[in-house]
Amino acid sequence: MKFLSSIFSSETLRLKDVGVSPLTGGFLVCLLLLAIAEVGMRAVLPESHKPRGSWHNLELRDQAEQLREMKDVDVMFAGSSIAAVNIPPVAFDSAASELGYELDSFNAGIRGCNYSCIAAGFKHMFLPLQEPKKVILIVAPVDLNEANESVIRRSEDFIRTFNNESYVAALIDVFRHLYVFGFRAEIKDFIVSQKWNFEPSLIGEKGHIDMGYEPRNRYQYKFRFEEKGRIVKDLSRMIDDLQSRGIKVAILPGLVDGSIREMMSKEETDEFAIILSKLAKKHEIELYRADDLVPDDEKFIDQFHLNTGAAHKYAASLAEKIYKQ
Predict the structure, then answer these.
(1) For residue 196, is it left (φ>0), alpha (ψ between -120 and 50) or beta?
(2) pLDDT tens by residue, 247-305
(3) In angstroms, what CA-CA distances link 206 with 62, 82, 85, 311, 312?
(4) What span, in angstroms and rounded, lies between the C-alpha atoms of 109 and 306?
(5) In what order do the strands lie in the sheet with 286-287?
(6) Quick one: pLDDT at residue 32?
(7) Consecutive H or E run containing 241
(8) What is the value of pTM for the model shown?
(9) Dihedral, CA atoms, 57, 315, 252, 124, nearest 10 degrees?
């Protein structure tokens, strides 16, 4: 440490000889090191990677920019990646149009979140940009799961981001243009793993996330639902907030494949269904029944997400079911 301090001392750098104080010299050295690190980062990272700024990830920023450019949104889908991936608004709108309903819908699904996080993100990110006529809440068992600690921790990270004071978010958005700041999370991860890990933005049209056809990993899950727990309460408060704004709300059970249904005991399956029914009754909103639309397991690329073609077919079938009623 003594050796390092001597290297960066004003005496060693002979800053006194040009009339620079030790304090100013240290500041200049820091700026020089920062500039070197910045140039190095920009040389190493591909142009496609951009700093996330005050948002939890770049994907959310891309979604918000798409919504900002839309004029009037009739239907907005809210939920986790199960909403974001499985319902392409373009397919939904096209099917509705064939039935005589001209709609402009948007998918505001947020990947990696439970409903505590989804409620916060929807309120702080999407509603200030657009208040749709109707919100369809896509709710799957994993979205209310109190047993998945990793999702709960990640959701808390998202929530802290959404709740940033406006001036804090503004400062972060200014400093994000510095790669050494904007990619601070990735740099920290690189120091540990010696690998660059980036979350690419997969945003397609109208907020839809297209995951393609490549199979993904499948995992074992434990489930616990708490009717009076925080996640369900946050979902209920979200419905209250939407209704107070004059926005119509409906609930649609989210898609899962057969392996997830097998992992859940009968008691857990019943408990989840009861929670959705009670929410619908409490808030006097519609609970769509679409079990007949669930695709075969081979249409899923993992336990929750459909491949691109199956997602378009599902969204079209969903529109037909809703608007033929």
Answers:
(1) beta
(2) 999 999 999 999 999 999 999 999 999 999 999 999 999 999 999 999 999 999 999 99
(3) 10, 16, 12, 14, 13
(4) 14
(5) 105-107, 75-78, 134-139, 248-253, 286-287
(6) 80
(7) helix 230-244
(8) 0.79
(9) 30
Please give the structure tokens belonging to residue 203.
């945003």
Q: What is the pLDDT of residues 87-140, one digit of tens each?
A: 999 999 999 999 999 999 999 999 999 999 999 999 998 999 999 999 999 999
- With vertex at residue 89, the alpha carbon angle to CA 280 and CA 233, rounded to the nearest 5 degrees, is 30
Reported as a pLDDT band with limits 50, 70 and 90, residue 61 is: confident
Task: Provide the residue count of the chain.
Answer: 325
Q: Rounded CA gap, 202 and 271, in Å? A: 33
Q: How far apart are CA 32 and CA 36, in angstroms?
A: 6
- ∠ CA 124-126-131, nearest 5°, is 110
Q: For residue 264, is it left (φ>0), alpha (ψ between -120 and 50) or beta?
A: beta
Written as six digits, the tokens of 116 are: 């505590």
